[in-house]
Design brief:
The complex is a heterodimer of chains A (234) and B (252). Chain A is of the alpha+beta class. In chain A, 20% of the residues lie in helices and 34% in strands. A 6-stranded antiparallel beta sheet of chain A has the order 1-10-9-8-5-6, with no helix packed on it. Chain A has a 4-stranded antiparallel beta sheet with strand order 2-3-4-7, with helices on one face. Chain B has 252 residues and is of the alpha+beta class. The longest helix of chain B has 21 residues, at 207-227. Chain B is globular and about 55 Å long. Classes of the chains: A alpha+beta (234), B alpha+beta (252).
Chain lengths: 234, 252
């Protein structure tokens, strides 16, 4: 009887630990800029931005993919978690790697499609079918950090996405591969770091209201530009 | 009776980048002012320029190099990267900074300081003039010492250099800092006035860490200086200022 109780306690403990650290979706990247790696694989999800601020439906809505190092459950309403936990998540969102991809037209989001975002000097300069917001974690500072160690990153950032799966009905998920290339422009210093991150992602679809509510609660707009402003907004 | 009008004299070991000592004398008509537990001393010798989204460090010329000082009664580790603290710990630190005596001296000329030149700033009628910028942030004083008519709001801060050794990854400085409160035109004649003098020797915090931490403490001390000690607690939720990092502008 005692052994049974121990097994039960151990099982409950294991289940609760698994739940506490459970990641949602998946993303993994390889490559490095100088020594800087890119890991936005803690929470990965997608949602369809189907309704505007007045809750009117968009005939051809935008689709967003969110990737962040921070682990949380994007399917549950974060307004139910304690304020201190919410502020922890929001704070870490700024301090960690993240990536947001926004496809302009859901009708174009299908398996086999490719998209490209080009950001030069902080401004989007691609064909407009997809925009990307790459958020690199700020440097971790220590008593040995000096300005001599700061190496500028090349400022032309090209994000390419190829979709393997885009199913909004049955599987309710997006899968694909991503590459993020940093290349020098004529305005960059000669030692600006070039390089490419390449990776794959699996982004389950999350209900729009929950996704937008959670991103707003986390103040995601400052970090990854989400939730999206209505199309009609300037 | 000497009582509350006695001069406050304290020799205090404090926290800074590489140890420090403070010798505080004086008060404002019995109202103590002791920003004497921690010192954030920064030799600001670089700019991080953001061009086309890429950040690059540039060494300032001698005339452009600056010295920033934060003195606070809050017990903080000036050499730690505060913004990397778990959020609850950062909130604790912000609360401490908002409810303790604090002093911000920003933009002293490092060149003139090294040459031993005295520099001075005056806050009068809400405007700072002089050689550098200041925010004098008094905590709520003990009830028994609150002057009936409040604090004199014309403030003169004088910095007399006593030594400087600014290195890329450290160094130290010594200075005498006088904070003088006077009656401002239009204030009642019985406001608390007087001088507090702080004899300081402190180690510099590494510049990058110091500037990131300055982004946390500066808005809090400016807020207290503006709203006054009775509302200083509300200043704990001041957002850190954006600062430049190799990844670009970090904005909380």
């Amino acid at each position: 009887m005692r052994a049974l109780r121990l097994v039960l306690v151990a099982s409950l403990l294991a289940a609760s630990l698994a739940a506490a650290g459970c990641r949602f979706g998946q993303a993994s990247f390889t490559g490095a800029l100088s020594a800087r790696t890119f890991d936005p694989g803690g929470t990965v999800f997608s949602y369809v931005d189907e309704h505007d601020a007045a809750l009117l439906a968009d005939a051809d809505p935008r689709v967003a993919v969110v990737m962040t190092w921070v682990v949380f459950d994007p399917q549950s309403d974060l307004s139910d978690v304690e304020g201190s936990e919410l502020s922890d998540i929001s704070h870490e969102l700024v301090l960690r790697d993240a990536l947001a991809l926004v496809f302009t037209s859901q009708s174009e989001v299908s398996a086999g499609e490719s998209f490209e975002s080009v950001v030069v000097g902080g401004d989007e300069d691609g064909d407009g079918r997809m925009t990307a917001r790459v958020h690199l974690a700020p440097d971790r500072l220590s008593s040995s950090s000096s300005y001599a160690d700061v190496v500028p990153l090349a400022s032309r950032r090209t994000t390419t996405v190829e979709l393997d799966v885009a199913d909004f009905a049955d599987l309710r998920e997006l899968r694909g591969s991503v590459s993020i290339a940093f290349a020098r422009t004529d305005n960059d210093p000669g030692d600006a770091v070039e390089g490419t991150y390449t990776g794959t992602f699996y982004a389950p679809l999350v209900e729009e209201r929950v996704a937008e509510q959670n991103l707003a609660l986390l103040q995601g707009d400052d970090v990854i530009g989400l939730p999206l402003a209505p199309r009609s907004a300037p | 009776m000497i009582g509350a009008r006695a001069l406050h004299v304290a020799l205090l070991a404090c926290l800074s980048g590489a140890g420090c000592n403070l010798w505080v004398t004086g008060d404002f008509d019995g109202v103590p002012y002791l920003p004497s537990t921690s010192v954030l001393a920064i030799a600001d010798r670089h700019d991080l320029l953001v061009r086309d989204g890429a950040a690059m460090p540039v060494l300032k010329n001698r005339a452009g190099q600056r010295l920033h000082l934060v003195l606070t009664d809050a017990r903080v580790d000036p050499g730690a990267d505060w913004l990397r603290f778990p959020h609850a710990q950062l909130l604790d630190l912000q609360r401490e900074l908002a409810t303790r005596d604090g002093l911000l001296i920003k933009g002293l000329s490092l060149d003139h300081f090294g040459d031993g030149e005295t520099q001075k700033a005056v806050l009068d009628n809400g405007t700072v003039t002089g050689d550098f910028d200041i925010a004098v942030a008094p905590a709520l004083p003990p009830a028994g010492t609150v002057a009936d008519q409040g604090l004199g709001s014309r403030i003169t801060v004088t910095v007399v250099p006593r030594g400087l050794d600014a290195q890329p990854r450290g160094g130290s400085l010594g200075a005498d800092i006088e904070i003088k409160r006077e009656r401002e035109a239009g204030q009642d004649g019985s406001v608390a006035t007087g001088s507090v003098t702080i004899a300081l020797s402190a180690g510099f915090v590494v510049e990058r860490v110091g500037e990131a931490n300055l982004a946390v403490v500066e808005p809090i001390l400016r807020c207290i200086a503006e709203v006054g000690p009775s509302s200083s607690g509300a200043c704990r939720d001041q957002s850190p200022l954006p600062y430049v990092d190799s990844t670009g502008v970090v904005d909380f």
